[in-house]
């Protein structure tokens, strides 16, 4: 059986191949990031064969790239000879998170001014919600979530908005099959029921946290379109005040305002 012929490659004066010149990138760098993404998708731990299967790259290429990433500290090998994301990525992630919050701050401030309530920005990392930006309400009674804090996605508005951006199977994998922990009597703990609500949120364009993480607190969240990684915007506050915002029927109602801000923020964050 004949194999598929491989087109010959040639290099220019910079050492880039014909394929690399055509794509405008460097193939080895693209593949290294492809491996890091595959490792992250696997929960941060995988064998070489698992990486080869998930990335589609040949084993010799996997060996070469992983060896380089290990040498640089971006990947490490554990005692069972599996590979994990390395500690040098922590600094990169923390710095990127701070920058993301900085870029988003004018948009969060605009949302806070429009609603009078605390505006938040969050991303999904390793199956957890990470808050990367916030502008607090000026009101004496307000919601406060520390930037950098992690939370579970099933009980937060931003978490459900983040899950709604994933393929269904990936969202199910994040939630798992077992009952989820209840933080309040309102927390949805059944993964199947939660997936049903997330599907509704996709259709509706936003999601609600109705005292599911904290009694007396309501949150409205939606996806930031165009962001390079699942990102969500939210406004949170005392239940009665958020319900009053939702009840407004004029052009300044909460969800259209949030959607407009999220769309413009997504354009800023788009790669």
In short:
The protein is an alpha+beta fold and 271 residues long. Helices cover 46% and strands 17% of the residues.
Provide tags for this entry.
single chain, 271 residues, alpha+beta, Arc Repressor Mutant, subunit A, Beta-Lactamase, six-stranded antiparallel beta sheet, three-stranded antiparallel beta sheet, 10 helices, 17% strand, globular
Descriptive notes:
A hairpin with a 6-residue loop joins strand 7 and strand 8. This protein is of the alpha+beta class. The N terminus is likely disordered. Helix 2 crosses helix 4 and helix 5 runs antiparallel to helix 10. The protein is globular. 46% of the residues lie in helices and 17% in strands. The strands form two sheets. A six-stranded antiparallel β-sheet has the order 6-5-4-9-8-7, sandwiched between helices. Strands 1-3-2 form a three-stranded antiparallel β-sheet. The chain has two domains: 69 residues, Arc Repressor Mutant, subunit A (Orthogonal Bundle), CATH 1.10.10; 180 residues, GAF domain (Beta-Lactamase, 2-Layer Sandwich), CATH 3.30.450.40.
The fold-level CATH name of the largest domain is Beta-Lactamase
Strand residue percentage: 15-25%
Oligomer state of the chains in this structure: single chain
- H/E topology pattern: HHEHHEEHEEEHHHEEEHH
Radius of gyration: 22 Å
